[in-house]
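Homework help board

Subject: predicted structure for assignment chain

Our instructor gave us this sequence and asked us to write out the predicted structure in token form, then describe one feature. I got the tokens but I'm not sure how to describe them. Can anyone check?
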Amino acid sequence: MTKAPPSPAHPVEVDPRVEALVTQLIGRVADKWTMLVIEELAYGEELRFTELGRRVDGISQKMLTQTLRQMERDGLVVRTIHPVIPPKVEYRLTHLGLSLGEAFCGVWVWAGENLTEIEAARHAFDSRKT
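My token output:
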């Protein structure tokens, strides 16, 4: 076991598998596409691939495919293929995907609470550069 960063919420010793998973998940949620897909699917509806692509502004078809495959592999989304012609493929969040989205809602709250302070800091920094 390795040591976790000091925190009252975490034990001193951490299972290396948990540590590896946290590292992987941080990489996943740092990927803006995953979080934007979660945001679009968070309302509980199943969405077709093309509709999801329309709702996630700026995502390419290739990146949406890669993102959804990785999310499916991680158990964050379920892909349903309906046996019709042309094939109809829909995606929805699993309980894991929904709970991951809920876990990162705190970032939105934090950003809203600190927006003015961050903008002021950025303005002060940018003013010093010129």
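Reply (TA_rk): Your tokens look well-formed. For the description, you could write something like this. The two ends are 49 Å apart (CA to CA). That's the kind of observation they're looking for.
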